[in-house]
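Bug #77: duplicate submission created two jobs. Keeping one. Sequence:
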Amino acid sequence: MFRLAAEVQVYLHRETIDFRIGINGLAILVEQAMHLDPFGRSVFAFCNRRRDRIRLLFYDRSGFWLLMKRLEADRFAWPRGQQQAVVRLSTEQLHWLLDGIDIEAVRRHPARQYLSVG
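Kept job's structure:
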């Protein structure tokens, strides 16, 4: 199984894309539609209309990587509730999404700040 480092930024393009688009087309989409740097230390995630495929695009100092995961019988739980076109995720959330977990349904306990232990 492949895992990304925790410090990598993950950006999800909420709108579906035509999967005939290759690396160059996705890099242009990142730059012009998402207004982000495709050469940065980031991973960009895209899905198709049926939500049974995900593509990940990232740059690693010498060239672009394009990874794709195709589901045979299921669908990815692509975030829908947010209004912005680009959603920022943690690498942990991306791994959950790739594993089939609906990240909108997952809720963490709130971070607590205490003044003392006593």
